[in-house]
Amino acid sequence: xxxxxxxxxxxxxxxxxxxxxxxxxxxxxxxxxxxxxxxxxxxxxxxxxxxxxxxxxxxxxxxxxxxxxxxxxxxxxxxxxxxxxxxxxxxxxxxxxxxxxxxxxxxxxxxxxxxxxxxxxxxxxxxxxxxxxxxxxxxxxxxxxxxxxxxxxxxxxxxxxxxxxxxxxxxxxxxxxxxxxxxxxxxxxxxxxxxxxxxxxxxxxxxxxxxxxxxxxxxxxxxxxxxxxxxxxxxxxxxxxxxxxxxxxxxxxxxxxxxxxxxxxxxxxxxxxxxxxxxxxxxxxxxxxxxxxxxxxxxxxxxxxxxxxxxxxxxxxxxxxxxxxxxxxxxxxxxxxxxxxxxxxxxxxxxxxxxxxxxxxxxxxxxxxxxxxxxxxxxxxxxxxxxxxxxxxxxxxxxxxxxxxxxxxxxxxxxxxxxxxxx
Length: 423
What we know:
- It is a single chain.
- By secondary structure, the protein is of the alpha/beta class.
- It folds into two domains: 1-282, Spore Coat Polysaccharide Biosynthesis Protein SpsA, Chain A; 309-415, UDP N-Acetylglucosamine Acyltransferase, domain 1, CATH 2.160.10.10.
- A hairpin with a 2-residue loop joins strand 15 (313-314) and strand 16 (317-318).
- Helix 1 (2-12) crosses helix 6 (142-151).
- The longest helix has 12 residues, at 214-225.
- It starts with a helix and ends in a 13-residue tail after the last strand.
């Protein structure tokens, strides 16, 4: 009970900054009109909802969200779903757009996004600053992380997660630690990452989450801003310097678990294949990510929609969904969906068949369509008789994007359809 009280006091003295300005170019057309953290995920959520929900569930109620790239739908989502905090209790979720507060430029890198908001951080006088990436899917209690940082009297603590060498190579920053968790080396997206001693084929990847003592953060951001040639990025510039000159510790996702519970869930959905796979995992009988867990809910904004509806029941025309997640507002009218995830307000017309697919909000599937192993982006209207996912060459010839593993992405732009809402 005493430990819980200490953690509560520490989280109340923490300001979280979520870096949500990234383009997410490896998601291609999914981020053509929206920032990566605004991409819908899991039926009714947005990617950023996971970092925001982790903050609220951890007792951190002072949150800034740094936005930049095509941020309209992200800002709208945060304004509608995350604005109900009490200012008199010093609670808030504030949007921090690139606004030329320091110079006449945009955010130049992840470190610069924090540096340009130093004056705002100072007004809140936090003891700790928690810097978070806004584009990963995971659940994490930040309380034990901050408590560990405070107990070790560290200047900075870096969050990491165990992944395979194949996943990490060229994709993630990699952390090398000693037996006490002290960071010995930080490698930014190495082609040959350092393996964990005694665990061949496994590495510690940086989650892009950091806890700083506030004064130390000020010192290092100002030093980096004044460094000629710096790209002003945490991974490229700040972390290598800090690790070389200060005692920095690592905190592994799952270290707060009282009993081993297997590999903690964490997904980087930065590619189309990873995005499709992470969504499809939710359809499993016992998914690793439990969205039905009332002890650690994921919050979001969603429209007030009627329940999903299934209509027609004849031998050749039956509205049905098997092994699917079906969100509110969906109408499956004489079509069939199997092993798929249907976001809000999806319409499936008669005689259409959908399998192993992610159907995003406000999609309309015309009659006699066949869709397999596909991602259909928000607002797309598939004309009658459209086939997707059965012939990769044919899909490419139609202008659809097909990944190396055979996942086909279809957006409204492929049909020259103009959306009447922000994505």
